[in-house]
Amino acid sequence: MSLLEVFGDSFARRALLEAVMVGGLCGAVGVHVLLRRLPFFTMALGHATFPGVVLAALLGISLFAGAAAFGAVVVVVVALLGARDRVDDTSAVGVTLSGAFALGVLLLSAQAGFSRDLTAYLVGSIITVQVGDLVTTALVGAAVLAALAALHKELVLGAFDRGGLAALGYPVLALDVVLLLLIEATVVTSIPAVGTILAVALIVAPAATARLWTERLRATMALAAVLGATSGVVGLAISLQWRVAAGATIVLVAAALFAVSLVVAPRHGLLARRPAALVPVAATTTAAGQGPTRAG
Amino acid sequence: MNLFEPFSIPYMQRALAEVLVLGALAGAVGVLVVLRRLAFVGDALTHTVFPGVVIAHLLGRSLMAGALAFGVLTAVLLTGLGSHRRVGDDAALAILLTSFFSLGVVLISRTRGFTADLTVFLFGRVLAIDRTDLVQTLVVAAVVALVLAVLHKELVLRAFDPEAAAAMGYRTRRLDLVLNLLIALVVVAAVEAVGTVLVIALIVVPAAAARLLADRVAAMTALACLLGAAGGWLGLAISYEVSVDHDLRLAAGATIVVVLVGLFLVAAAVAPLRRRLARDRVPAVAP
After folding, report:
1. Neighbours of A42 (CB within 10 A)
2. How does residue A64 score in pLDDT terms, banded at 50, 70 and 90?
3. Are β-strands A282-283 and A293-294 bridged in parallel, bridged antiparallel, or unpaired?
4. Strand partners, A294
5. How far is A64 from chain B (nearest CA, A)?
6. Do B39 and A249 touch (CB under 8 A)?
7. What average pLDDT does chain A have?
8. Closest residue to B85, CB basis, from A117, A201, A268
């Protein structure tokens, strides 16, 4: 039975469409996340939207709206905490992450008889996406990609040379906040597909993989989007075929692509020939849990 | 509110003993985590032990053994996770974390009662701790405290001045591995009882608060242990009080985290005052 035959049913076709859109969007945004070294922040954002989702579920309003509102609060809190000289960014993110997540659990537990299953929210439930989710994903995705394209030059300059950006008269802080909000929109949009905990994987892994294959930024973004969409489709097919959790399978496919690229990529792979000066580089593959491999 | 009355019940006593030990343990390790900015590593470890727990569960073995195996595996991988030019260590960490976690989710999604198991792993069951859990936690705490006491000087030096540590002949890689293993041990000791979210909070939040209030590492460590234990106690008491007397169920683990974050916010509010007072006397430590 071919892997593609599993997409025969309408729920599977909806899931396929969602996987392609979310994968592509996450891949493109992920390049910016990596340039600014924001994977941990992205991770925290996923966790921190949890109380928003719980509140929205309790109030019966859109989960998207709840998650997005809380995510925006977290963007501000992390920015404020990180601005204090005694709290480094990592700790600020750690505190925000655990605090916000616990708040969600607390709200949830306070609700006697509240039985709505939020596990789907944590690890994704792409099989059950509705047409409404697809429309939301398409709209948000188009808006995020349009913003990234429009601000491409400024965002890239900001990632590499903040001083230069400020000297050119751009509002650096405003651009930072815009980027963080774009990341937040992406995380919130991917939640139905892969869930809050694993959204960061779909953002980071394809982008990190693409960076191993190409040096040019636009090419990296395009490749990351393709890799993200591919991970989505392949992971979904595997999960439908063997009846395992879809979101997690998608993540494992993305991680496997990264692991393979880490070894075989032409210039940056571990097998590529490299000048002797760069030899002491240790890196690790992930999905299969192999031990660290030494380059050279 | 009564801070002592709820703890006349045996299961509350066990829960209290567990969170006091864990709070102190995590606080002590957390200071090094915060000084080294390893919060993400701690978070990663809480997720990467998941497949170990699942496999042990499926094989009917001790969950702690499974978690320990994967904790050690991750600690070793994280230490080897050097600086590949094109892959930042944070990106590699994120991929490692999510792929291990996914492996656990995929494995457990084949079984029945999948969502219930996942919820316990994430949020723990601090009120259902038995004597065995408590003994395990105590053993781990003793081991971690011993290692911290023996290697304190080296670990702190590594945190503040890695070049000097290397120049003095210390194997910094080995020290990093030791710290990662210590974090893994705390996670393993705590995860079955209190869940991943609470573990990372116990490690990072009291230490971050202590760092706001203390300049010396020893004072910071003492304060972090104290805050961690106090947060645990207060959280349990509040959760019990509200649940029993006001009929509003508050999950114990989550209440502890919220109390810890509250303590952190108080510390953040007090810190500028304290430093204004102290500025004339003591030069602040700059890591």
Report:
1. 26
2. confident
3. antiparallel
4. A282
5. 22
6. no
7. 78
8. A268
Report A:189-228 residues touching B (Cβ under 8 A). Answer: 197-198, 200-201, 204-205, 207-208, 211-212
CB-based contact B254:A106 (threshold 8 Å):
yes
Tens of pLDDT, residue by residue over A84-128, are 655 667 777 888 888 888 888 888 777 655 545 666 677 777 877
In this predicted structure, the answer to whether residue A226 has a pLDDT above a threshold of 80 is: yes
How far is A249 from A241, CA to CA, in rounded Å? 11
Q: Locate the domains of chain A by residue range.
A: 3-270
More confident residue, B279 or B198: B198
| Residue at B226: amino acid letter | L
Kindly determine whether residue A248 and residue B106, on different chains, have CB atoms separated by under 8 Å: yes
At residue B189, does pLDDT exceed 70? Answer: yes
Give the Cβ contact number of residue A296 at 10 Å.
11
What's the CATH number for A3-270? Answer: 1.10.3470.10
What is the torsional sign of CA A94, A95, A98, A100? negative
A264 vs A223 pLDDT, higher one = A223
Q: What is the dihedral of CA A89, B85, A213, A239, to 10 degrees?
A: -50
